[in-house]
Amino acid sequence: RGLGDVYKRQVRELVSLQRRCSNNLNQVAIQANTYGGIYPQDIAMLQKDYADLWEPLSELLKKLSQVVEM
């Protein structure tokens, strides 16, 4: 396995996380538009999902920036 394979796997994981975040955000928007509000647990879920997305994204960007500097 080369370095490119590792990055491809990480990117696929990030894309999956991003899709989940987008889907959850869309569901919360539908809830807000349909019923006029959202539940605090929905906001907490979105915050957790985005935190889960940003941590690996930040790590991947650090690794990619090191490759670019070589």
What does this structure look like?
It is a single chain. With 70 residues, the protein is mainly alpha-helical. Helices cover 90% and strands 0% of the residues. The chain has helices at 3-35, 40-69. The protein is elongated, with a radius of gyration of 16 Å.
For this entry, give a set of tags:
single chain, 70 residues, mainly alpha, 0% strand, elongated
Helix-strand blueprint:
Elements: H1 3-35, H2 40-69
Rg estimate, integer Å: 16 Å
State the order of secondary-structure elements, H for helix, E for strand: HH
What is the number of helices?
2
Which structural class best describes the helix and strand composition? mainly alpha
Q: How would you characterize the largest beta sheet? A: none
Poorly predicted regions are none
What is the subunit arrangement here? single chain
**Mean pLDDT rating:** 82
How many strand elements? 0
Q: In percent, how helical is the residue content?
A: over 70%
Gross morphology is elongated
The rounded distance between the terminal residues' Cα atoms is: 20 Å
Strand content: under 5%
